[in-house]
Batch of 2 targets.
Target 1
Amino acid sequence: MKYKVIFFDADDTLFDFKKTQDFALDKLMDSIETEFDKDYCITEYKKVNTKIWEEFEQGLISSSDLKVERFRRFAYNLGITYDANELSSMYVDFLGDGSFLYEETYEILSYLSDKYKISIITNGLADVQNRRIKKSTVSNFFDDVVISDEIKIAKPDPKIFEHALSNLNHTDKSSVLMIGDSLNSDIKGGINAGIDTCWFNLGKKINDSDFVPNYEINNLLELKDLL
């Protein structure tokens, strides 16, 4: 068995973040008043959120600033006068309640958990990710959880992978595999850290980046044959 440690990304790999985000945004939009319909507001927020997380991965904004700044931009774009801090607090609270797994997540983690050490490495917000992971039915499968917001290091910085390895007292990088959906954070980060990578390409996208994973899967259950 080549691998002894498996690092998983959380959102859009094990957890269905689209469903979580839609759940939280639906709750939030029900709580505010605006002349625009809910679908338009949600679309506008997602545009802002995607852009600001790209800035975060590039080191252009901190996680604490991100939480509020995305709602400042959102409110500005819609021309509404809601306080960004209040919107952020409400949204984070709703987001923490949304713990939705992909259909195959429980089965694959149950299968892997007695064969490998398993850790999550996520670029999420600590108060959100801790609640969602603990609330899920798979929390007992993880030997460790590393959240960028807690250690102030984010993927693709190789230091976050070094931190995760240190937590497990594991030094042999050749026996570690990083699995995630993001070429720019998970795959690039794993490559930067000198560990093998597996791209979870649920949408069967074309890889037009410079980052070439060791493996590519479209369904988590493919890991049974791969590992």
Note: The longest strand covers residues 117-122.
Target 2
Amino acid sequence: MIKTEGIVLSEMRFKDTSKILNIYTKNLGKIPVMAKGAYKANSRLMGSTQVFSYNEYILKKGQTFYYLNQGNIIESFYNMRENVERFVYGSYILELIEKSSPEEEENLTLFLLLEKSLKILSELNDGFLKFIVAFQLKFVSFIGYKPHLNTCVSCNKTPISDIRWSNIEGGIICSSCFSKDMSSIYINKHIYKAMIELLYIPFEELENINISLKTLKSMQSLLERYILFNIDRKEFNSFKMIDMILEN
């Protein structure tokens, strides 16, 4: 038997009463878990197999799945479902983790980021876009693609003006190095400054900085493309829901 802690990223019904879960665990990374009988009305596994929930698990490893023997709730994060924006941005976080993580590859830093992000988001009432941009920057750094921001990623000089962002180079490039990536895009000084601030600031201090909605929208879109580029995906389903929120 294996004892670990984990957060449910997604669930899929299996036959009439069981679930197949993707769980991001503290010790094992992302793992597929079979929860037999979890859909039964009186199942002792019902609470610990809900999406968003953070639980302590006892598992048995099989050939295809880990099998859930016991689950104890540490934090249900139930109030994620009581606010549309919490739910949408929370779903985006779970999808990012699920789609970017290989199975059974431990990343304790990423697990702790996920747990802390859900805790803060579950209590958030405003400032959702600023929070998710900060999350994107921290997330992409923790999976190995930390943006190079302080100097030009190509020549290492400090850019003064005409700063561009390059997905290919993984950060900013100066006017002398534009030819290294002709698909790079211009970013203004507000985006550049905000990216540095949000990369390093703790979530608890986000309310202390002011960033315009226009700048945050530009950053969110830029980072979305950067993440997709690096994990070789075309889109995230939950991003469509974020788009709908931002359009209103």
Note: Residues 213-231 form the longest helix (19 residues).
